[in-house]
Amino acid sequence: MTSLAQQLQRLALPQSDASLLSRDEVASLLFDPKEAATIDRDTAFAIGCTGLEELLGIDPSFEQFEAPLFSQLAKTLERSVQTKAVNKQLDENISLFLIHLSPYFLLKPAQKCLEWLIHR
Predict the structure, then answer these.
(1) Which end of the chain has less Cβ packing within 10 Å, N or C?
(2) What's the rounded Cα separation, in Å, for the pair 32 and 96?
(3) How far is CA 71 from CA 4, 48, 49, 50, in A?
(4) Is 105:47 a contact under the CB 8 Å cutoff?
(5) Contacting residues for 114 by C-beta, under 8 A, at least 6 apart
(6) What residue segments make up the domains of the chain, in order of their start?
(7) Which segments of the protein form a coiled coil according to its record (predicted)?
(8) pLDDT digits 0-9 by tens, 40-90
(9) d(CA 108, CA 54)
């Protein structure tokens, strides 16, 4: 491999790494690792949004997490190309969501939301 090719490989964005697209097993709360590897982003997002809708029926205060974690913008957000400030805000939103979600962890809607966050 040439020096230029090595440099370009080091600069490549993580989401453009082909090895990440062909994983045989992935982490999941709801599915076994092999089945989870077959789930695409749209499906995981739909599962998470369904869980959030169900949680909103239990506790309407979950609405504050819809825009930052369960919106179309959140679905397409690539952390690796964001600024430190954006990533810090996202980390804070996830942390607050997990704290807010903790009393509901054993409920299926909470697990659906967690599946989306794990997938991303």
Answers:
(1) N
(2) 27
(3) 39, 10, 8, 12
(4) no
(5) 29, 51, 101, 105
(6) 25-117
(7) none
(8) 999 999 999 999 999 999 999 999 999 999 999 999 999 889 999 999 999
(9) 9
